[in-house]
């Protein structure tokens, strides 16, 4: 890869008559005056050639030509983002041009243009999740509708999804962010000073980029990825610019005395040693073994040494140019250890930031996805030593890890994996090479022994020691580890031998015989006892100078200190600084004795970062455990280690170390191992108290150890429940309180990680806010809150209201996808599955999550949307083995998900495929198309079953299939429903007529005997499939029926409609069961029910709506089970339910899938509050009350001390509430709305004072109120300001919006703004403020400290410095916080 890029060239540069611009400023018209023009003038004054639409043209220039030339040649593109930018075609064309140029330039090795997004009036989250319904102009019209964004012409040029995808790509670039809430209005809180500061920031960054000879950011990307095929590859790496891939051999060298023959060949030329065969398997180009190889065999037979030797072999290094990465697990390892080792491999290759992001993941599949993205197409060898299917690592782990080697192209250019394992239960991959003990007195055994002993090879045949050597070989039983320990022991003796060195062999043999229990005729089954004999001999050797009675007399003993190491984990290491305390000696002595034990093969001593570490072979560790059990028991040593860990500052003292990792190796080891040590030592009560300590959990989050903490809490709770007996006994012993509190803290920690970084104040805020709702019930929670109050750093924000989501609620899991799911489903076990595509619908990913939260993402590698082909629909079988994809050109593709390969691609239809469905086992699929036909397919063969099922006379909108795949049902725009016998290909009966408008959705019972249909005619109809008769026709909905579902037995049906209701029907009687299930809100456009589903027994139903809520219903009573399941931030497009109705899953346009626990019938979540975005907040002068206004058209008043809502919601507005304020005494509130009205409220009674104050011709965006509540001021998008006499309900003054500040101060009789209800239009800087989504405190020295970050974007905030109160509008929450100093 060249060090620098040649400048981009092309026809556009050659044709340019004038100088090509350095900078192209892309902006929408409303942003020109305040941002674009000042930036252009500043850049031009600095000597940079800047293009800003017509201002940069000369007379006679043709606008379209000059614009095209400028954006095709500019070095830097600045994009000032706003709703108008997203809605207008020219600005999006400009962005599209720069994205295309960037891809083309990188693909050809040229220097690409630099893209700098300025998030001015469109934030990063809004770019990623663009919602066109949110944005309105001065006249109250939707900006996107005004710009004809939804017109057929515009959508044909770039669909809504395409625009969202392009904005999402731009948001991936590091840009310049401003505070949320900026407008172009003179009186907005953003202010002239902040705009000037924003322009200065952009100017400095553009200036820097223009002065650089080459783009450092892109060079880092190209160096890190080897090759870049898509813009997504660039943007995904751009944020890790400091990470630079550096291939390396990340593996230890074997000691010099290890004997291996990697290149040994027999007479026939084939490898004749285990290690040589293993090397050949790794280098093999046989496609059947292309994954790599697995070394199997018992412990101590040389697998690990062979793996290390292969890592450093010249042939291996030449083949794997991307490096070799050695990882070690062991029998004590769990998924956390595996993830840690994978992260270390990424760090070793230069990916420090990439590894940090991997550490934040709790799912192995996500870690592997990120790791594969980091190594990309580089050819690497990944070596994983000693893999076991234990502690949460399942038997298919090797297949999962093998995704690291999955690639296309020449087989010689693929990464490989090399494993070793002793676990016979493990499902192996690649070529298997079995390692066995060597021939007892064979050539290899002799070489191993002689090399380890340092003796001359001829010494083995010396008559003076030949017999002793022969007997040692026999006693070692050909075990390489035993041979190495024996040889090392002989070397130690020879180095100290004063007489004939050959006599050392005889002396060692005598020591070995004294402990050996193997009979000479014993077969190889006793080979581990041979190792025991060599280890005993080694201890005899080093202890020979101490006296045989040393330990009995309480003196120093090598045997004692060696067995103390039984507390170590297998394949782990312990710092010498901790070992010295365990051995009760100073560091120098501990190091001296460790060196002596290393000299005889008992331990391995190595140094890393100026710290000494001890480790042992797994079998040597087993020996230490056995010896400890014979003497004082392992528990005694765990108790002693626990005492050692408490020394110094104590366990909680370690929580004072800020940051992800303590510099002290001893402390780091204690932190990572203390759970195991305390439990094994019997200190369960102390461990429980540790888990219930806020300071400890804070340290857990700071060190990135939440995953290990979760595992330990689950393990302890399981132990307490199993040993504590019944639930009643748990209650009697008060353990129940502790168990629940630990689980609550565990969930709080998991939910807090994305929002708190490493700031102690932010972490304490998150933990406090997520558990305080249980304080009245659990005394343990009260203790945790008290601890937070005492130890939180000052200043910190204490959450008063529901500022963040509660831990322990109905939300079981939040699955974040790259884009919106096409389908979600739930199997009988509660597992979740579905599929989604990327924003451009060119790639498909199938996701499946087991009930125990193991997530599997399977990418189906194919260009799904290429050329004119458009991906239109898809589904996954419940078995999760197969998927079927439909396209706009009539093509169908059948995929094997497990094999990640396309089975068949067929041109099955003549036009768009609108709907696909599959049988329960995934063997059959059905498709419906605009060609008016239904077709059934055999997934295994890709062949159509029978002829096309014809009869419909218009588009087929929806299809469904019975569980056994024998029947299918279809609904069409021709108003009919048809049922088909799949085996015969015949229609069952006539078309089922009755609907008077198009059929929108169909569903079928599990046994295929009944079908249900929903139509735009507002009716639901149920059909008897065998007879073709309509069982019932039910009316009740007052708008379109969007979705229908049916119980497994076909006795009940459920429907969801645009009228915001869910209705359940008794199929046999045709009657509605109970009243309509209402609760979804928002009106026809924003509250319609989008999707419904039903449990297998028909007793529960679930619905998802345009109001972003999920609701679960008890069908028999007609009552909603619990409160709305909130959390989605966009339309809930898919819902499904487990067969027993205990869990529900929802998929949303917010690109997430959420799993809900509805078994209890009670949601532990927000019981009150706004149901839509909170747009504005205000406070009373005394800081005791707050008011909020929301898109749900309501106003709510809050008690600042308790965080509770005062009275009911204040309703009356018919449009979104945009602004609110409060009188000084908190007794009155004023609100302005999209409905162009101003309303004043009596807070104590909850009643509106007088009629609505009308007169504005546009949305009311700003309001303020006098201290006594008798006057109000309002500002509108009609650019006017009105002053109101509240008592009389009349306008007393009409002014201009630019005079807002003067009018407020003059008419509200305020000497300063402190006496006026604050509305965000402030002049002075506050000590606590919101910046970039974080709540920040300004210290006395002018520096800033982040206090916390909320889950949702803060759109409005108010602060009362006098009373230390901070109120913010964040999502649908009103976050009330108090500053504690």
UniProtKB/TrEMBL annotation:
Gene3D superfamilies, alphabetized: Helical domain of apoptotic protease-activating factors, P-loop containing nucleotide triphosphate hydrolases, Toll/interleukin-1 receptor homology (TIR) domain, Winged helix-like DNA-binding domain superfamily/Winged helix DNA-binding domain, YVTN repeat-like/Quinoprotein amine dehydrogenase
**What InterPro entries would the database entry show?**
Apaf_helical, NB-ARC, P-loop_NTPase, TIR_dom, Toll_tir_struct_dom_sf, WD40/YVTN_repeat-like_dom_sf, WD40_PAC1, WD40_repeat_CS
Entries under Pfam families matching the protein: NB-ARC (PF00931), TIR_2 (PF13676), WD40 (PF00400)
Q: Enumerate the Gene Ontology biological process terms.
A: signal transduction
What are the TIR domain coordinates in residue numbering?
A: 19-154
Which key words are in the record? Repeat, WD repeat
Q: Where is the composition biased (Polar residues)?
A: 1-10
Does the record's keyword annotation contain Repeat?
A: yes
| Domain of life (superkingdom) | Eukaryota
Which segments carry the region annotation Disordered?
A: 1-21
Gene Ontology CC annotations of this record: cytosol
WD repeats mapped onto the chain: 906-947, 949-990, 992-1033, 1034-1075, 1089-1123, 1125-1166, 1167-1208, 1210-1251, 1253-1294
Show the CDD domains listed in the entry.
Answer: WD40
Molecular functions (GO terms): ADP binding
What name has this protein been given in UniProt? WD40-repeat containing protein
Native species of this protein?
Chondrus crispus (Carrageen Irish moss)
């Amino acid at each position: 890869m060249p060090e620098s890029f040649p400048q981009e060239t092309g026809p556009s540069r050659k044709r340019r008559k004038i100088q090509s611009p350095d900078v192209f400023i892309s902006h929408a018209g409303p942003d020109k005056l305040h941002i674009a023009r000042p930036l252009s003038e500043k850049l031009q004054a600095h000597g940079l050639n800047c293009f800003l639409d017509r201002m940069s043209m000369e007379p006679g220039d043709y606008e379209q030509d000059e614009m095209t030339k400028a954006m095709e040649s500019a070095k830097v593109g600045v994009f000032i983002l706003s709703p108008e930018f997203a809605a207008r075609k020219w600005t999006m064309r400009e962005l599209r041009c720069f994205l295309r140029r960037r891809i083309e330039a990188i693909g050809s090795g040229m220097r690409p243009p630099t893209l700098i997004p300025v998030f001015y009036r469109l934030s990063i989250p809004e770019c990623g999740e663009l919602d066109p319904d949110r944005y309105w102009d001065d006249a109250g019209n939707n900006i996107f509708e005004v710009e004809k964004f939804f017109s057929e012409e515009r959508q044909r040029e770039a669909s809504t999804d395409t625009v969202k995808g392009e904005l999402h790509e731009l948001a991936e670039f590091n840009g310049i962010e401003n505070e949320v809430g900026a407008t172009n209005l003179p009186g907005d809180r953003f202010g002239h000073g902040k705009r000037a500061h924003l322009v200065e920031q952009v100017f400095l960054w553009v200036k820097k980029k223009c002065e650089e000879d080459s783009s450092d950011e892109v060079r880092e990307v190209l160096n890190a990825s080897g090759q870049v095929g898509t813009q997504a590859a660039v943007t995904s790496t751009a944020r890790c610019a400091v990470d630079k891939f550096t291939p390396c051999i990340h593996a230890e060298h074997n000691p010099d005395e290890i004997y291996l023959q990697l290149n040994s060949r027999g007479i026939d030329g084939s490898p004749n040693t285990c290690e040589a065969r293993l090397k050949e398997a790794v280098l093999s180009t046989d496609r059947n073994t292309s994954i790599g190889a697995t070394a199997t065999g018992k412990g101590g037979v040389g697998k690990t040494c062979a793996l290390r030797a292969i890592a450093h072999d010249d042939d291996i290094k030449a083949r794997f140019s991307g490096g070799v990465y050695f990882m070690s697990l062991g029998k004590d390892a769990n998924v956390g250890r595996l993830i840690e080792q994978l992260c270390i491999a990424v760090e070793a290759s230069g990916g420090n930031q990439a590894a940090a992001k991997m550490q934040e993941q709790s799912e192995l599949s996500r870690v592997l996805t990120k790791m594969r993205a980091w190594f990309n197409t580089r050819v690497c060898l990944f070596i994983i030593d000693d893999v076991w299917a234990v502690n949460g690592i399942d038997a298919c782990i090797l297949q999962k890890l093998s995704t690291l080697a999955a690639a296309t192209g020449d087989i010689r250019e693929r990464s490989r994996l090399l494993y070793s394992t002793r676990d016979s239960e493990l499902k192996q991959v690649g070529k298997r090479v079995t390692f066995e003990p060597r021939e007892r007195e064979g050539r290899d055994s002799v070489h191993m022994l002689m090399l380890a002993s340092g003796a001359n090879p001829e010494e083995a045949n010396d008559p003076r020691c030949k017999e002793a050597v022969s007997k040692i070989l026999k006693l070692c039983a050909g075990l390489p580890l035993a041979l190495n320990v024996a040889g090392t022991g002989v070397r130690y003796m020879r180095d100290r031998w004063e007489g004939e060195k050959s006599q050392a062999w005889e002396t060692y043999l005598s020591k070995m015989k004294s402990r050996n229990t193997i009979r000479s005729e014993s077969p190889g089954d006793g080979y581990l006892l041979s190792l025991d004999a060599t280890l005993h001999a080694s201890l005899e050797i080093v202890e020979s100078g101490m006296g045989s009675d040393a330990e009995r007399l309480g003196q120093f003993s090598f045997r004692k200190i060696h067995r103390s190491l039984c507390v170590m984990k297998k394949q782990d290491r312990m710092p010498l600084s901790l070992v010295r305390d365990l051995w009760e000696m100073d560091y120098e002595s501990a190091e001296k004795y460790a060196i002596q034990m290393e000299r005889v093969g008992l331990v391995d001593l190595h140094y890393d970062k100026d710290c000494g570490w001890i480790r042992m072979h797994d079998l040597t560790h087993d020996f230490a455990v056995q010896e400890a059990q014979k003497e004082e028991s392992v528990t005694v040593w765990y108790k002693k280690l626990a005492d050692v860990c408490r020394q110094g500052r104590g366990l909680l003292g370690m929580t004072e170390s800020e940051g992800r990792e303590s510099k002290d190796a001893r402390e780091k080891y204690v932190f990572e191992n203390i759970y195991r040590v305390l439990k094994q030592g019997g200190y369960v009560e102390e461990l429980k108290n540790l888990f219930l300590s806020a300071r400890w959990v804070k340290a857990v989050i700071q060190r990135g150890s939440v995953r290990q903490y979760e595992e330990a809490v689950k393990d302890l709770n399981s132990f307490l429940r199993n040993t504590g007996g019944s639930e009643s006994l748990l209650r009697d012993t008060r353990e129940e309180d502790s168990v629940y509190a630990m689980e609550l803290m565990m969930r709080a920690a998991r939910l807090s990680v994305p929002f708190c970084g490493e700031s102690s104040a932010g972490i304490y805020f998150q933990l406090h806010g997520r558990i305080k709702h249980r304080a009245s019930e659990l005394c343990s929670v009260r203790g945790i809150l008290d601890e937070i109050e005492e130890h939180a750093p000052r200043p910190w924000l204490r959450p008063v209201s529901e500022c963040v989501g509660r831990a322990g609620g109905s939300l079981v899991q939040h699955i974040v996808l790259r884009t919106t799911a096409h389908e979600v489903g739930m199997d009988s076990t509660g597992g979740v599955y579905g599929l989604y595509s990327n924003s451009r619908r060119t790639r498909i990913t199938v996701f499946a999550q087991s009930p125990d939260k193991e997530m599997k993402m399977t990418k189906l590698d194919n260009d799904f949307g290429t050329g004119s082909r458009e991906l239109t629909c898809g589904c996954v079988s419940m078995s999760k083995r197969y998927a079927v994809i439909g396209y706009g050109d009539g093509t169908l593709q059948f995929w094997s998900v497990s094999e990640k390969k396309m089975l068949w691609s067929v041109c099955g239809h003549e036009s768009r495929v609108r709907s696909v469905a599959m049988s329960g086992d995934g063997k059959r699929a059905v498709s419906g198309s605009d060609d008016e036909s239904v077709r059934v397919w055999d997934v295994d063969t890709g062949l159509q079953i029978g002829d096309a099922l014809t009869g419909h006379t218009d588009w087929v909108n929806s299809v469904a299939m019975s569980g056994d795949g024998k029947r299918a049902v279809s609904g069409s725009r021709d108003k009919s429903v048809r049922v088909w016998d799949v085996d015969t290909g015949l229609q069952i009966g006539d078309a089922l007529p009755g609907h008077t408008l198009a059929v929108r959705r169909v569903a079928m019972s599990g046994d295929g005997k009944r079908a249900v249909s929903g139509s735009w005619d507002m009716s639901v109809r149920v059909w008897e499939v065998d007879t073709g008769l309509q069982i019932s026709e039910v009316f009740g909905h007052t708008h379109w029926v969007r979705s229908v579902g049916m119980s497994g037995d076909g006795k009940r049906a459920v429907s969801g409609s645009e009228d915001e209701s869910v209705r359940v029907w008794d199929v046999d009687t045709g009657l509605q069961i109970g009243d309509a299930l209402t609760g979804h809100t928002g009106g026809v456009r924003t509250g319609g029910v989008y999707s419904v589903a039903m449990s297998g027994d028909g007793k529960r139903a679930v619905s998802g709506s345009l109001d972003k809520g999920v609701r679960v219903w008890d069908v028999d009573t007609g009552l909603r089970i619990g409160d709305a399941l909130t959390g989605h931030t966009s339309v809930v497009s898919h819902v499904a339910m487990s067969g027993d109705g205990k869990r529900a899953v929802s998929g949303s346009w917010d690109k997430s899938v959420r799993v809900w626990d509805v078994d209890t019938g009670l949601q532990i979540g927000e019981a009150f509050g706004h149901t839509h975005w909170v747009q504005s907040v205000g406070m009373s002068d005394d800081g005791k009350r707050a008011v909020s206004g929301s898109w749900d058209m309501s106003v709510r008043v809050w008690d600042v001390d308790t965080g509770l809502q005062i009275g009911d919601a204040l309703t009356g507005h018919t449009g979104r509430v945009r602004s609110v304020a409060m009188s000084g005494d908190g007794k009155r509130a004023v609100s302005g709305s999209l409905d162009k009205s101003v309303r004043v409220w009596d807070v104590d009674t909850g009643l509106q004072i007088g009629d609505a104050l009308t007169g504005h011709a546009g949305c009311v965006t700003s309001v303020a109120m006098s201290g006594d509540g008798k006057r109000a001021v309002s500002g509108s998008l009609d650019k006017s300001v009105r002053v109101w006499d509240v008592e009389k309900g009349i306008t007393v003054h009409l002014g201009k919006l630019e005079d807002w500040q003067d009018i407020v101060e003059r008419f509200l009789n305020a000497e300063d703004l402190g006496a006026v209800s604050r509305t965000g239009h402030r002049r002075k800087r506050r000590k606590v403020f919101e910046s970039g989504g974080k709540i920040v405190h300004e210290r006395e020295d002018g520096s800033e400290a982040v206090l916390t970050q909320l889950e949702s974007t803060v759109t409005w905030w108010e602060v009362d410095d006098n009373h230390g109160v901070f109120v913010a509008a964040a999502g649908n929450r009103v976050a009330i916080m108090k500053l504690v100093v």
